[in-house]
């Protein structure tokens, strides 16, 4: 009976050793899976961060481009206004040289004859005027 007891204790110890070994293998496998999952999450987080940074840079670049284009449009509009103002001044000066009212009309512009002379001169001037700018 002592032999059977020794065999039984040996089988029991062997079973315990196998169970502990199995548990150890399972623990190692779980740790490996956790490390792989953690590494994958870190990699995904870095990819998302890189995409966000790239998107932010692209958006900032587009905002800068839009601001430059807006500034150029404003500058062009201002240059156009200035040019139109100079053209208007040139035209007024040219009309002043073209039409000289009589001294009587200079004193009293409300007379019909003066208004008619002004309108006739203005119509003639407008049909002949060529902008210099």
Commentary on this structure:
The protein has helices at about 1-100, 105, 110-130. It is mainly alpha-helical and about 130 residues long.
The geometry reads as rod-shaped
User: How many strands appear in the DSSP assignment?
Assistant: 0
Radius of gyration: 48 Å
Continuous helix count: 3
Mean pLDDT: 91
Q: How far is it from the N-terminal to the C-terminal residue, by CA? A: 126 Å
Major sheet summary line: none
Topology:
Elements: H1 2-98, H2 103-107, H3 112-128
Keywords:
rod-shaped; 89% helix; mainly alpha; 133 residues
Give a quick precis of the structure.
The chain has three helices and no strands.
């Amino acid at each position: 009976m002592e032999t059977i007891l020794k065999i039984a204790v040996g089988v029991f110890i062997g079973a315990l050793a196998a169970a502990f070994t199995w548990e150890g293998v399972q623990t190692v496998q779980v740790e490996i899976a956790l490390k792989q999952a953690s590494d994958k999450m870190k990699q995904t987080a870095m990819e998302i961060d890189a995409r966000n940074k790239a998107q932010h840079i692209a958006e900032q670049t587009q905002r800068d481009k839009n601001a430059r284009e807006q500034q150029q449009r404003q500058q062009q509009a201002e240059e156009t206004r200035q040019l139109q103002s100079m053209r208007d001044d040139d035209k007024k000066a040219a009309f002043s040289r073209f039409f000289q009212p009589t001294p009587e009309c200079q004193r009293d512009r409300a007379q019909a004859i003066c208004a008619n002379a002004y309108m006739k001169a203005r119509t003639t001037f407008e049909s002949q005027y060529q902008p210099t700018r």
